[in-house]
Amino acid sequence: MRDLTTRWRWLFVVAALVIVAGLVLAACGDDEGTGGDTGTSETPKAGGTYNYMLAANPVSIEPVNAQESEGMQVAHQVFQGLVKYVMNDKGEMVAEPDIAESWETTDSQTWTFKLKQGVMFQPPVSREVTAQDFVDGWNYVTDPANQSYVSYILAPVEGCDDGGYQVDTKAGLTGVKAIDDYTLEVKLRYPFAEFYQTLGHTVAAAWPVDYAKEIGAKKFSQKPVGSGPYMVESWKNNQYIDLVKNPSYWDTENAGWVDKIHCAIIAETSTAWLQFQKGAIDYTDVPPGQVAVAENDPNTQSGKWTAKKYPSLAVYFIGMNMTDPVLGENLELRKALMMSADAQNVINIVNEGVSLAATGFVPVGVPGFRADQNPYPYNPDEAATIVAGLDSVPTLEYWFNTDEGHQKIGEVLQAGWKKAGIEVKLNNFEWGTFLDKLSKGGSGGGSQLFRMGWIADYPSLDNFLYPLFQSDQAKTGSFTFYDNEEVDQMLTEARATIDENERWAMYNELETIILTDAPCVPLYYYRDFRVTNNRIQGFDHNPQGFTDMWKVWVAK
User: Among 46, 493, 40, 76, which residue's Cα sits nearest to residue 258?
Assistant: First the structure.
């Protein structure tokens, strides 16, 4: 099994944070925008082309390895799984039936999914999706020979190890069985009531493994086949990906309006911003320093464009090494650090007002979210009083991976901590070195304070608490080496609790307990700042970071 520090996909998406550009996100209820509303009361029109922008050439656009935002954005239009993520009236991302018609469990360990009939794979496969396709697909992605970096999503399934790879490749996934064409049985290694919520991830989608093997993995990866409303027409590496409507899409009510989606691959944000202003693309992020410019542009003010901050399921936090002899046994010092971490100045000075101060680890948009969980909110005067009462506080070190944005954030934090009487020295490392040093904990000149980020793999309270703070996971999830027996036991109980409200209450209590122990400081929630051309209507950028492109249509 590979080192788990290489398996948590969303952790590494925020390795190089581009402050105030497209990657500056935060997740809170406010989604204020400037300019015209991208919604409309007009009747959608069929036809035309949507010109979308991808900020990088995708690593992959198919289930085996779609792992970063660009590749998953494309895969989101092409592939479907048992469930799909939909934003409800509360602004929460919830799992609803997609290829599955329904599911049930009596013990949260054995699950039965009933599939819809008539769901078809795209041409040239053009055959019905069956339960066996999920058996084949899940076995393929969890086979270590196929080198999936996202198979950990399926780690709970019987037959997997903790990293999502098969324990015995001859036996395969012993927990997945096609009872008949439309019934899939899944047995897990342990009770996990939110298992269904994980299955909207692309790695769990349906795809024709038999066809992929017939034409070869390399050819399939360039022009994969799913069951979604759009299909891949062509992928010109580092230039563009073109999608066209699936002519035989099974879900006629959501078959898409535009005939074509042209995804231009534009690596430089400044270039994308210029292309957008010229009308070559309909959607963009903006370069650092351009948020206010975009909001005040005459095109935005007239309603030709919309500039908006979209909630995201992500948090930027300051970790504290609980094995460090200075921090680990000194709760009062950790409290003072938390209460003097100047999130608002970070947001105003560095992030151009895009992100929002975090009130806990879990952002709005996650089902079961509870606000104001932090028992030690920002209070620099109280922090100074705490520090004054301590015997002595040595100079601490704050580490970050080398990046101008992280440097600026460190400088703002350093100034706030200094006002509270805490001297902090900044130190930066290349990303790989940074992770290696964090993984050593208290040994060999280990970390003290450090920056880190977490973006949800799937919308779940568990996904923000278990991989970051369960004692085995905290070594490589949050790198805090947090270890609390009560928290571990409660996490196990919460995971097994079928009743939704009861489960959420347990997770809410867990979040409070962890925050009270102060192993890290939740600094801010991310938001995506995006500018869209209102030539296109029906656009929305959901908290998972995806656009349902089958909903957009060309108005002008």
Answer: 46
d(CA 505, CA 507): 5
Q: What confidence tens digit (pLDDT) does each residue in 303-350 have?
A: 999 999 999 999 999 999 999 999 999 999 999 999 999 999 999 999
Tokens encoding 479: 């790198």
Cα separation of 510 and 346, whole Å? 27
Q: 416 near 454, Cβ under 8 Å?
A: no
Residue 480 CA to residue 449 CA, distance in Å, equals 9
User: Residues, the chain, total?
Assistant: 556
- Whether a cis peptide bond, with omega within 30° of 0, leads into 247 is no
Unique residue bearing structure tokens 């069929």: 46
Amino acid at residue number 191 = P
Separation of alpha carbons 392 and 255, rounded Å? 65
Instruction: List, for residues 123-143, the tens digit of each pLDDT value.
Output: 999 999 999 999 999 999 999
Q: Rounded distance, CA 493 to CA 542, Å? A: 30
Which H or E element spans position 139?
A: helix 131-142
| Angstrom distance (rounded) from CA 17 to CA 282 | 24
- Do the beta carbons of residue 478 and residue 452 sit within 8 Å? yes
Q: What angle do CA 59, 64, 68 make, to 5 degrees?
A: 35
- The Cα 409–Cα 488 span in angstroms is 32
